[in-house]
Amino acid sequence: MSHATTPTRVGRAARATFAGIVLAFAAACDGGTEELGGPNVLLVTVDCLRGDRLGAAGYGRDTTPNIDALAAEGERFERAYAVAPFTAPSHASILTSLDPDSHGVVFWGHRLAPGAATFGDLFAEAGYATGAFHNHPSLVSTGITRGFEHVGVQAFGPWSITAEDFETWLDGRGERRFAAWVHLWDAHRPYGFRNYEGEGAASLRARGVPERYPYAEAFFGPQHDVRVGRHEGFYNLSAAERAAPIEVGGKPRVLGERDFDYIADRYDNAVREADRGVAALLESLRERGLLDDTIVVVTADHGETLREREGCWFTHDPYLTDETLRVPLVVRWPGARAAGRVRADVASAVDLLPTLLDACDIAAPPTLQGRSLVEPPPQDAAFLAVAQTRSLSAKESSARAPQGGWIEHREAVTDGALRLVHDLDRDRWSLFDLVRDPGETRDLLAAGAWSPEALALRATAERLRAARPRVDPSQGSTTPEERALLQRMGYLESDE
Question: At 208, is the pLDDT very low, low, confident or very high (cuts 50, 70, 90)?
């Protein structure tokens, strides 16, 4: 949830001015939307993409040349944050502008609250052709694609299959404006490899995708004599699991530093591959003369912890830290408006839907919890990003042991300089200075002393929590087939 700590929302007049610019520009273009009065929308979410892995953000490897080029033609947000460190609640917030307590998808197996308006609902009602394209089959049970006219699910597929599906839909929509969400799973673990022997294998084989699809691994890092990291057994590793033998190449052995370096290098390779997927989507628009009539947003549902946290390596689910919550956010406006601008104001995942509605001059429901990012706020405006993680599965938890009810329930509030974390199970607070301690290794509250700044942040966090509309997270049940899939993927414990 993105909240102003001072009453400094962007004025309607400023938003109306920008909407007028967009509409006037669209009327002058030849991309097929001149009679429809507004821009198209392409929202791209790259699963597990850390905010610090963009070349445009200063990363030393050339991991994202295409996203970097997009940022040069648009604006990039330096302090953009996810609302959760795993896929289901985060995407639900992106597509509804509601935090998890308010949309109901707080964990796998939960379904979107009936009253939550989605990206698909709102753009379809405005007359847009709406399409959702993703390759994470476990998202199906959440109901977040409700309202989209077309939904394409390519289970575990590479970006090439998703881009093909998007292009086919794009060509078949007629002359209508379009609003599409495309999700790319290529940077998700296991980095650089997909095994299609499970769910969705038959449909992918029918489309010519081999059952085992390793993509290019030669961008970064040295070659490795054993292909470590081909399956989930090399990921989400606790300290005890890292010290125990793991079967590699048919023989059990304890992984060493070289193995873990190799797995980390594979993440950068995976990011580079996902970047190719973004390029393919942009080329689809460019070839059809649609790019300059389209608002393009590239972001992530969350980041990824590699080796930063001793409790668990190569995962994301348990942590409310910068490597999992700070995500890329690049927006290319029609006509490359604001090209090259870098913004430092705090942005949250719940801000994306209000921003797109505002830019398209579509009235946003008053229930949305984000703010429009169309124009930068006044310099003295302060905004917060709120995130939470709740778990019912030991696999998703740093606690690793049930404690009754939720295995763990924590929330964090961030102003971009400080992060305050509340462990609701134990009623414990932690505070981290993101400027002086970017690795978040020193808890400023370990000695129990609260600074005035920390107390003010706590008061705001408690006020926001008390005011947050809530729905029952267990409302809406999964089908037996959906639950079986979630269990096979390790997101839910077995019924036994």
Answer: low
Structural domain includes residue 61? yes
Query: Max CA-CA distance within the chain?
Result: 67
Under 8 Å CB-to-CB from 473, ≥6 apart: which residues? 100, 101, 104, 105, 106, 107, 110, 390
User: Is the bond preceding 100 in cis, omega lying within 30 degrees of 0?
Assistant: no
Q: What DSSP line would sit under 115-180, residue for residue?
A: T---HHHHHHHTT-EEEEEE--GGGGGGTTTTT-SEEEE-TT--HHHHHHHHHHHHHHSTTS-EEE
Whether 152 maps to a domain, the answer reads yes
Of 91, 3, 491, 84, which Cα lies nearest the Cα of 320? 84
Torsion angle, alpha carbons of 140, 143, 148, 153, to 10: 0
CA distance 365 to 444: 39
**Letter for the amino acid at 200?**
G
422 found inside a domain = no
C-alpha span between 214 and 15 (Å, rounded): 45
* Contact of 24 with 161, CB cutoff 8 Å: no
Token pair for 419: 């992060």
| Number of domains forming the structure of the chain | 1
CB atoms within 10 A of CB 424: 14
- Could you tell me if 310 and 324 are in contact, meaning their C-beta atoms sit under 8 angstroms apart? no
Other Cβ atoms closer than 10 A to 481: 11
Please name the helix (run of DSSP H) or strand (run of DSSP E) that holds residue 323, with its range, or none: helix 322-325
Q: For 244, list phi and psi in degrees, rounded to 5.
A: -100, 155
Which residues lie closer than 8 Å to 69 by C-beta, 6 or more apart?
none
Query: Is residue 153 in a domain?
Result: yes
**Residue among 440, 415, 414, 411 at smallest CA distance from 426:** 411
| pLDDT, tens digit (0-9, with 9 covering 90-100), for 284-318 | 999 999 999 999 999 999 999 999 998 889 999 88
Cβ partners under 8 Å of residue 99, min gap 6: 1, 83, 93, 350, 369, 386, 388, 468
What single string gives the DSSP state of each residue in 22-52? Answer: HHHHHHT--SS-TTTTS-EEEEEEETT--GG
Order of strands across the sheet that contains 80-81: 326-327, 80-81, 347-348
Which CATH number is 83's domain given?
A: 3.40.720.10
Q: Which tens digits make up the pLDDT trace of 359-408?
A: 999 999 999 999 999 999 998 888 999 999 987 665 556 665 444 455 67
- State the Cα–Cα distance between residues 251 and 397, nearest whole angstrom: 29
The parent domain of residue 367 ranges over 7-217+262-383+470-488
Q: Are strands 294-299 and 40-46 parallel, antiparallel or unpaired?
A: parallel
CB 279 within 8 A of CB 182: no
